[in-house]
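About this split. The held-out portion is used to measure sequence recovery: a designer receives only the structure tokens and must propose an amino acid at every position. Recovery is the fraction of positions where the proposal matches the reference. Here is one held-out target exactly as it appears in the evaluation file.
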């Protein structure tokens, strides 16, 4: 990776301050896009409780236009079975980790 690539990549990082996160335009835009999706795939996501709440994952159940149950899956590299079960429960059983050996899959392996 070159210094130019690192600099360009770093310019895309946005820090969202905790006290105003729910009102941040980026979270509002993300919630809007997630609410319209037929399928959601999380890659390299940490599944932090606050971020799941801010993204409104537990409220995503049906696609706005077709009323089809939205499929939400995610990578789970180095997450234990217990951690995956906790995320599944905290997301109101919305995020599933249905793949064999998922805890050892990098994002490349996940695909």
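Reference sequence for scoring:
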């Amino acid at each position: 990776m070159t210094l130019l690539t690192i600099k360009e990549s770093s310019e895309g990082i946005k820090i969202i301050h905790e006290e105003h996160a729910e009102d941040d335009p980026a979270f509002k835009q993300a919630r809007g896009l997630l609410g319209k999706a037929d399928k959601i795939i999380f890659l390299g996501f940490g599944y932090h409780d606050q971020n799941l709440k801010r993204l409104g994952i537990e409220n995503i159940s049906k696609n706005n236009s077709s009323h089809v149950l939205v499929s939400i899956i995610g990578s789970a590299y180095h997450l234990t079975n217990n951690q995956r079960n906790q995320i599944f429960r905290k997301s109101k059983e919305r995020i599933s980790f249905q793949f064999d050996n998922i805890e050892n899959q990098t994002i490349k392996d996940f695909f």
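Annotator remark: Residues 25-36 form the longest helix (12 residues).
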